[in-house]
Design a protein that fits this description.
Length: about 700
């Protein structure tokens, strides 16, 4: 169907976001260790992008099961992606070579750029290699005349070329690959300090410095780092509903390690004939070759040792505990009369844990229900639910096994819970449950329901990511929300095929229809001469039908601000989007909340929940969005949104070419949203608002 509108490609848009992450490494205002961490985040993001998104496109190209037109489109997109990534990696290299490494040295921490060892470290490097590294090395002779496919996903290998000299004087080459044993030895090796300077060395460089001795019967020729990225996506549409979903997912997770090659990354200095030998040996398809810098997998910079605390870093603020809500029974007493919003990581996640503990000790608690998408290892949340079950409470947890890259952890935790007496409900075939909700049901001695408590959030029940991700959650005893969550859990337990919701907006049921009504109402206001206003905070905006709605609202005169961290396929600054502005904020915490604001002629309607505006969220998942009904909570959320729109330190405009253009503070007071939000919430807490 033809459309008069234009959209960004979702993958190219995502690359724009990831480049904004890289821009943090180039920000001279940030402490050096934080800048290095952003290099790691950029690299980790890119690796997963190739494992999933690029792998999907390469599958279309290589399997040849599609129309010629679709195959060509996929090939063209992969080519464009690689071109964009190539330019970004040049920028990453510039930042490292011209800024990061010199600043590290200036701070007294020298990271060896190559395997050439300074004389005063030669003996240590030699001794460390033979005692700590050599026992874990397993060189494998490779032969391009035999099919070899043993390279593991995203593991760095050294490709080594050696030769022996025949009687004729001709060189006879052999090729080996060696997997870096960094599950046994750290990626960064600390060397002895010397004359007031501390030193680190990449593990691969330490191995290279000793390769001559590793192959005594050969003459060493050359060595380069290489790495395969395999297709790590798992398609669950073909799950057999007649067999155990647990067994099916276990099988699929195991097959992930054997996925098709989506990228072959190599040191760009490798000679052409050496590279061709590797391509022939591992039967690498065309279009996967990606030259990089000498040191691959820079996501490992997240583990860079801060030797002797040489590198300055941002000292994190401790999450605040709300005054008056730390005593037993206080949280439930509070939300029995008034809604409470928790903003992580500014507020302590322990408040949510305390709510669960209060439910355990409340004699009227009859049941605790919760969804689980991604939880921390050794999760306090899970341990609390287990304690509730052991106290005789009925506990039901819906576990979404299909959470990408968390399948195994979710399987382990679900089995632990089941063994502790918790009722576990597993994934629904063909549908992901992405909602972040919990329900505490209370009944009197006659079984009649008493005032119960509900939680609807934008982030997972994960105390670790709650320290890093910026999310919001609503605690309430509102009867409409409580009843709707009961309807939802009955549906997830397969006890109610046709739930109805009076208050919550739930994807698959009433979310889309209500979003259309809310947008159209703002259009009607604008067309009648009143102010139409929409403000959306999302992780991703990709669904064309919802983008079209925003385009039409802009044409009707509605003023629209979008705060979108990641993918944003809406193209601003067009005739049909002249009233739409896109803000992107990247800072110390990962912006993760989803908030919808509709002006409603001065009586705003505000919602929070789990749903981004992507096809997968709106059409293929169970998502829950709740209205904010408490006026104090409404005002608080509006204030936080306004602070983010005022950010002129870490906020960028996204323009019509996907450029990230910093909002400048030349003519205004500097505002860094995450610091300003902390200050706002702290002032509110200090005022005694929650007592």
């Amino acid at each position: 169907m033809e459309t008069p509108y234009d959209y960004f490609n979702r993958d190219i848009s995502w690359l724009s976001f990831n480049f904004r992450v890289l821009m943090e490494a180039d920000d001279d205002r940030l402490p050096l260790l934080d800048r290095i961490r952003f290099i790691a985040i950029y690299s980790s993001n890119l690796e997963e992008f190739y494992e999933v998104r690029v792998a999907d496109h390469m599958a279309i190209v290589t399997h040849q099961k599609h129309t010629a037109e679709r195959i060509q489109a996929a090939a063209d997109l992969v080519k464009e992606i690689n071109q964009v990534v190539h330019q970004q990696l040049l920028e990453q290299s510039r930042i490292l070579q011209e800024k990061i490494y010199p600043l590290m040295k200036k701070q007294g921490l020298f990271l060896y750029p190559t395997h050439q060892v300074l004389p005063f470290h030669a003996a240590f490097v030699h001794k460390f290699f033979w005692e700590e590294v050599f026992p874990f090395l397993q060189p494998v002779l490779i032969d391009h005349t035999r099919v070899m496919s043993f390279l593991r996903n995203n593991r760095i290998y050294l490709a080594v070329r050696l030769y022996q000299t025949a009687e004729s004087g001709e060189r006879v080459y052999d090729y080996y690959v060696i997997k870096l044993p960094y599950d046994k030895v750290p990626r960064f090796i600390e060397l002895p300090a010397h004359e007031g300077m501390n030193y680190l060395m990449f593990l691969e460089d330490l191995i290279k410095a000793n390769l001559n001795e590793l192959f005594p019967s050969y003459t060493y020729d050359s060595c380069y780092t290489v790495k395969l990225t395999r297709d790590a996506d798992i398609f669950y549409e073909d799950l057999n509903s007649n067999s155990s979903i647990v067994d099916e997912i276990r099988k699929k997770v195991k097959k992930r390690k054997l996925g098709d090659v989506s990228q072959f990354v190599f040191d760009k200095r490798i000679p052409t004939d050496f590279l061709q030998y590797l391509c022939d040996t591992f039967r690498l398809p065309a279009g996967v070759m990606t030259p990089r810098m000498e040191h691959l997998s820079l996501k490992d910079f997240s583990k860079l040792p801060n030797v002797a605390n040489r590198l300055p870093k941002q000292e994190p603020r401790l999450p605040m505990r709300l005054k008056g809500l730390n005593n037993r029974q206080s949280i439930t007493n509070y939300i029995a009369h008034k809604d409470l919003s928790l903003h992580f990581p500014y507020h302590s996640f322990e408040h949510l844990i305390h709510l669960l503990y209060e439910a355990i000790h409340d004699p009227f608690t009859s049941e605790i229900k919760m969804t689980q998408y991604r939880v921390a290892e050794n999760s306090v949340v899970i341990n609390t639910l287990i304690a509730a079950a052991q106290q005789g409470k009925k506990v039901t947890v819906f576990v979404e096994l299909k959470a990408r890259f968390d399948e195994e952890n979710n399987l382990i935790t679900s089995e632990l819970m089941r063994g502790s007496g918790i009722n576990i409900q597993y994934s629904i075939p063909g549908l992901k449950v992405h909602a972040k909700v919990a329900l505490i049901v209370r009944r009197d001695t006659l079984g009649k329901q008493m005032k119960s408590y509900a939680y609807v959030g934008t982030g997972n029940f994960n105390e670790e990511t709650a320290k890093l991700y910026s999310d919001v959650g609503l605690l309430t005893s509102n009867k409409g929300i409580v009843n709707d969550l009961q309807e939802l859990f009955l549906h997830l337990e397969r006890k109610n095929k046709n739930p109805t919701f009076s208050t919550l907006l739930v994807a698959q049921f009433n979310l889309l229809d209500n979003l259309h009504l809310l947008i159209h109402h703002e259009m009607m206001l604008a067309q009648s001469g009143k102010k139409g206003r929409i403000l959306l905070k999302l992780n991703s905006l990709q669904d064309p039908s919802m983008i079209d709605e925003l385009y039409r609202a802009s044409q009707a005169g509605v003023e629209i601000d979008l705060i979108v961290r990641g993918i944003c396929c809406l193209r601003p600054n067009q005739s049909y989007s002249k009233n739409i502005r896109i803000t992107r904020i990247v800072d110390h915490f990962l912006e993760h909340a989803r908030v919808y604001y509709f002006g409603n002629d001065g009586a705003p309607k505000i919602y929070i929940g789990s749903a981004d505006w992507m096809k997968r969220n709106l059409y293929r998942r169970i998502e829950v969005v709740t209205p904010i009904l408490d006026t104090d909570v409404q005002q608080e959320i509006v204030q936080l949104l306004q602070i983010q729109l005022q950010d002129n330190q870490k906020a960028c405009w996204v323009d019509e070419h996907l450029n990230n253009k910093y909002k400048t503070a030349a003519q205004s007071t500097p505002v860094r949203a995450q610091e300003a939000i902390y200050a706002y919430l702290k002032a509110k807490n200090d005022s005694g608002f929650y007592q």
